[in-house]
Design a protein that fits this description.
Layout (H helix, E strand, L loop, with lengths): L5 E4 L9 E3 L2 H9 L2 H4 L14 E3 H14 L3 E4 L2 E6 L10 E6 L35 E4 L8 E2 L10 E5 L2 E3 L6 H5 L4 E5 L4 E8 L5 H4 L6 E3 L4 H8 L4 E8 L2 E8 L1 H6 L20 H15 L13 E5 L2 E5 L4 E5 L9 E4 L5 H69 L5 H7 L23 H11 L10 H49 L3 E8 L14 H22 L1 H17 L25 H11 L16 H4 L10
Parallel strand pairs: 1-4, 5-8, 10-20
Antiparallel strand pairs: 2-3, 5-6, 6-9, 7-11, 11-17, 12-15, 12-16, 13-14, 14-15, 18-19, 18-20
Helix pairs in contact: 9-11, 9-12, 13-14, 14-15
This protein binds flavin-adenine dinucleotide (FAD).
């Protein structure tokens, strides 16, 4: 493709012993890269139920050998420690990346062999954005001036300065450069999820594991091996044993098991759980040995020196909000030459569509509040109507009761002036049994200070007719209706409050976005795109086993966009990158889900890898108002793809 490529890698040895499950397409692709030539035991054919797999180290070496054959340069044990802006007065000057190899090497969680260094808990860096729930967070960062150096700045002593016109970041999910270049990441948060990785030395002479029947396998709690693990008190959801250059076991282990087996000292909240002080390393090794023995490895099998047993937290998953960022310098004015960066706002069409999205979001939330207001009003009217209906009903019933009381009272006074005749009793409307006991007839008490209504109620009470209105079934129904309306009102007021919160959050997001649009309005000189790939752009949910399988594609997509950059320019490259990232996010990323074409035709061009149906669906999303943020219009589809007559409409 005519590019000059330089890889900077801070590891100086290929130390990654863990083994990865591969999808058919990835395994086929690796065969095309010569993996079978370099590792004759590697196969892309299924052997019984054994999953296809290859060690991370071996995958890296396959790719390295190919890259060397293609003329790629490498700097090992060198860390990307900064980028330097070109001199704005020199139109042909380039950005430079500083690759630094400290004496004694770099030591990070990726290069260290400790039991928790594998994947650090990152939650401390995440915050809740405006209007976000407990499961959604953001990692908001801004351009770090200590990382992006001005034109005249001197690189660290001994650093290599590598010119670039596109920077691809494959730094993993804990990418420092992403943070320092101001990429915003959206974070999905799950409940506590812990993985235990066990790496053991494979002795080729060991008869048990030499046995070809001892193959790689996956384990679920109800499988025979799963039952043995459960009986031994190992609570887990999924485990796998992969046999490669090493023995590799990974278990999604339950926190309760780690506590019961004393590998974790105490149950602690969130980020305090998986810490060095809370971990008993010796107990973890005992537990790991127990698991390895149940899985079927001899008790004599040694742990690897590097990452022998390791816990990691996969309770969160991060993804870049935008798939690229453009780095440039202020083109003029007092701050000419100052480094600046932008993402979607750097692309005229995508920027306009994003502005429309924020407008739609805000107006939808304002409409939702208005709808609540209308509902509140309707409910208030209903409450008022029901209350007055109820009052009328009660009034009518009380009037009838009062009439009854009057009648009884008249009879009482008639009786006090002499016994009533049976004819008078009959005409009184009072039932015969009510006359049985003279003492049952109430005494009418004095009015005292009571109001007319109170007096009436008191009189009804004394004559035993006070409950007449309350006990009436129609009144009961009306009262229940009123009660229900009042409850709905409380809920509606809460809903309105939440919706009002969304309005404020959307106003804030819109204001932040418009600020970025304003900042980008002046344009930038010397723009270069930054493309994160692999876990740096989209971290997998680890048990899905799709990290590398999908990582191959995000990396190739970025390579293709760099090619487009050279052929058609930056705007076209941004549009392509955006299109393929939208497709990548939608997935579905399951082997066999039909998202990918057969690997034999795979090239850097994503059209050769993604199924036509997935491409069509991404295009359709852009013109479907239901797709919210993705409703970006026809112009979001790169023209070369818009022109194609693709089959597979509606995909899945
Ligand atoms: C336990 C476990 C099991 C997994 N199983 C599978 C599986 O079965 N199948 C699968 O497909 N995926 C699996 N994955 C996921 C897979 O390992 C990752 O998705 C994949 O390794 C990501 O590759 P990457 O190149 O994006 O990042 P990484 O593999 O994290 O590589 C990043 C590299 O960047 C280097 N680096 C970082 N910062 C700098 C810097 N500033 N300068 C220079 N170099 C730098 C690091 O040294 C590192 O080598 C698993 C992951 C884990 C943790």
């Amino acid at each position: 493709m005519g590019m000059r490529v330089h890889v900077v890698e801070k590891r100086d040895i290929f130390s990654r012993v863990n083994i990865l499950m591969l999808w058919q397409g990835t395994a086929d692709d690796l065969v095309a890269y010569g993996a079978k030539v370099f590792y004759p035991k590697f196969t892309n054919r299924h052997m019984g139920a054994s999953p296809l797999h290859l060690g991370t180290r071996e995958i890296q070496l396959v790719l390295l050998k190919n890259a060397l054959l293609l003329g790629v340069s490498f700097s090992y044990g060198a860390e990307l420690v900064g980028v330097q802006a070109p001199d704005p007065s020199e139109p042909s000057a380039s950005w430079r990346a500083w690759a630094f190899s400290p004496k004694g090497g770099t030591q990070t969680h990726q290069t260290a062999g400790g039991v928790l260094d594998f994947k650090p808990n990152k939650q401390a860096e995440y915050s809740k954005g405006a209007g976000m729930g407990a499961c959604n967070m953001v990692q908001a960062t801004s351009l770090d001036a200590t990382f992006v150096a001005a034109p005249g700045a001197a690189p660290p002593d001994g650093a290599e300065a590598l010119e670039f016109d596109a920077l691809v970041l494959a730094e993993g999910e804990w990418s420092n450069t992403c943070k320092r270049l101001g990429f915003t990441k959206n974070i999905d948060k799950f409940s506590t999820a812990i993985g235990l990785v066990i790496n053991m030395v494979r002795d080729p002479l060991e008869p048990k594991t030499k046995d070809p029947n001892m193959r790689s396998f996956t384990v679920k709690p109800f499988d025979p091996v799963g039952k043995l693990l459960t009986q031994a008190g190992v609570g887990f959801e999924f485990a796998e044993y992969l046999k490669g250059e090493t023995h590799y076991i990974v278990v999604t282990i339950k926190k309760a098991t780690l506590l019961k087996k004393k590998a974790l000292r105490e149950d602690k909240p969130g980020s305090e759980l998986l810490t060095r002080v809370n971990l008993d390393e010796a107990a973890l090794m005992v537990l790991s040995r127990e698991i390895a023995t149940i899985i079927g490895l001899p008790e004599t099998t040694a742990f690897c020196d590097f990452h022998g047993a390791k816990l990691f937290d996969f309770s969160t998953r991060a993804r870049c909000a935008a798939p690229f960022r453009v780095l440039g310098v202020m083109p003029g004015g007092a701050q000419q030459g100052t480094p600046i960066a932008a993402d979607l706002e750097a692309h005229p069409y995508l920027s306009r569509e994003e502005t429309k999205f924020f407008e739609r979001q805000l107006s939808a939330s304002i409409d939702a509040v208005k709808k609540c207001d209308t509902e509140v009003k309707e409910l208030e009217e209903a409450i008022q109507a029901t209350s007055s209906n109820l009052a009328n009903m009660k009034g009518a019933l009380n009037d009838a009761a009062d009439e009854m009381v009057n009648k009884v009272q008249a009879l009482v006074s008639a009786r006090s002036s002499g016994r009533l005749s049976s004819g008078q009793r009959r005409n009184s409307g009072v039932q015969d049994d009510e006359w049985e006991d003279d003492d049952a007839l109430p005494n009418v008490s004095s009015a005292g200070e009571a109001s007319p209504d109170q007096l009436a109620a008191q009189r009804r009470a004394e004559y035993g007719v006070a409950d007449v209105s309350d006990a009436n079934p129609d009144v009961e129904i009306e009262e229940a209706r009123l009660e229900a309306y009042k409850k709905s009102m409380i809920e509606l007021e809460k809903k309105r409050e939440v919706q009002q919160g969304f309005v404020e959050a959307n106003e804030q997001k819109q204001a932040e976005w418009l600020e970025r649009v304003d900042a980008a309005a002046g344009g930038m000189a010397h723009p270069v795109p930054i493309f994160p790939v692999g876990d740096a752009i989209l971290e997998p949910f680890w048990p899905q086993g799709l990290g590398s399988n999908r990582g191959f594609h995000s990396a190739l997509d970025a390579v293709w966009c760099t090619h487009v950059l050279h052929e058609e320019g930056l705007e076209a490259a941004m549009l392509e990158r955006n299109f393929w990232y939208d497709l990548l996010l939608l997935g579905p990323w399951n082997p066999g889900a039909g998202l990918l074409k057969n690997a034999e035709g795979w090239r850097a061009d994503p059209m050769s890898r993604y199924a036509d149906g997935a491409v069509v669906r991404t295009k359709q999303n852009y013109t479907n108002p239901q797709s919210k943020r993705l409703f970006r219009g026809d112009g979001a589809t790169p023209p070369r793809i818009a022109k194609l007559e693709l089959k597979g409409a509606g995909f899945l």
